[in-house]
Sequence to fold (439 residues):
Amino acid sequence: MKLTPSRRTFLAAAAPACAAAQAVANPKPALLGGPKTRTTPFPDWPVADAREERALLDTLHSGKWFRGSGQNVKRFEEAYAQLTGARQALATANGTAALFISLNVLGVEPGDEVIVPPYTFIATVNVVLRQHALPVFVDTDPESFQIDHRLVERAITPNTRAIMPVHLGGNVCQLDSLLATAAKHKIPLIEDACQAHLAEWRGRKVGTLGATGCFSFQASKNLNSGEGGAILFQDEDLRERAYAFHNNGSGLRMIGSNFSYASSGANLRLAEWQGAILLAQMTRLQAQAKTRSENGAYLTSLLKQIPGLSPAIHYEGTTNNAFHLYMFRYNSEAFSGLSRDQFLKALAAEGIPGASGYRPLNTQQFIKDSLASRGFQRLFSAQRLKQWAEQNQCPANDKLCTQAVWFTQNMLLGPKSDMDQIAGAIQKIKRNAAALAKS
Ligand SMILES: Cc1ncc(COP(=O)(O)O)c(C=O)c1O
Fold:
């Protein structure tokens, strides 16, 4: 008997197999009912084990919970200075305090001006406003997500008292150019390195190149004690003044001087608990930093091949990116018009959490309100405030804020295959972008 099937029955029988093969080769995105790319969570943050437990219990039982009586904070300062190559470090209550102390000891006073980026965490700007100084925003270089160093010099006025760039996301600003501008105008450079632990410029750790370098140890940071901060110094006198400022005006060289004070100040000290945790966390810091750097570089090699994605570039001179954030620009036109929000939603459905990042800081209403306040109106002429408003344009940053996508640092702490998965999920979304855009 002849068993050859007719063309119609053959096609009918083969169709499900073809569809299955196609579904494997080109699975539907999870948002449209397909399988999730990733079903396990990314590595946890923070990481802690018996080291932290012992450190906390030892501190508890010592009864020395304050830096004036214990040794943890002091030991941490010495260890962090040694690790970064700074002459000295000062631990502070948090990163905001580190910036605030820096402004104070570097002589930024009410009525002065400070140059800041518009693409940063709010604390960078808040400390300037709380000092009753004018934040002068310099646009962002969207290629790197950093302050546009080429535009800094033209923002300097006779009242500029500090330049405060941020090593955003753990990537590094163009420090050669920024340091040269600061030196030319004899203005201190305060490095906001709150997101950039162990990042490097020409082989030197960031935070050691400016007059001060400020770090945060808030819970999300690559070095974490829940809350906490530090300042790095090359100048011992400056460190002594900062110590006094953070200790209610009472300096180290004044110990024993009984309620007499070197300056005004505040209590911005770190507690011994945090010092203990930081010392324990530092035992893993370098290995974690290496994993982030390797995974970050590998992810860039994958994502830059996908048309429509532009990973943040490094300036020549960057010898290590701390990758507190993995940042790239997303161009929806290259994804069949799929908006950034839809892209993030589709990515989250694949098990890959991403974020859209900061909004433009320079145009926020609270800044206008601050400048309209009685104090600012007294300190700055109407003409200066009008000129500030006219010049407060950061078009590149405005656009960047509509395109940015971030991944958090813990996503870079797993195996290299996690990066392949991230890129694979994005490729899958791209192949199905038109259908996703319509959904
Ligand atoms: C760029 C930047 N500057 C300053 C800070 C302030 O640090 P903290 O939250 O420890 O006060 C942060 C914290 O997120 C930051 O990211």
In short: Residues 115 and 156 are 8 Å apart (CA to CA). The radius of gyration is 26 Å. The chain has 15 helices and 15 strands. Residues 50-281 form a domain with the Aspartate Aminotransferase; domain 2 fold (CATH 3.40.640.10).
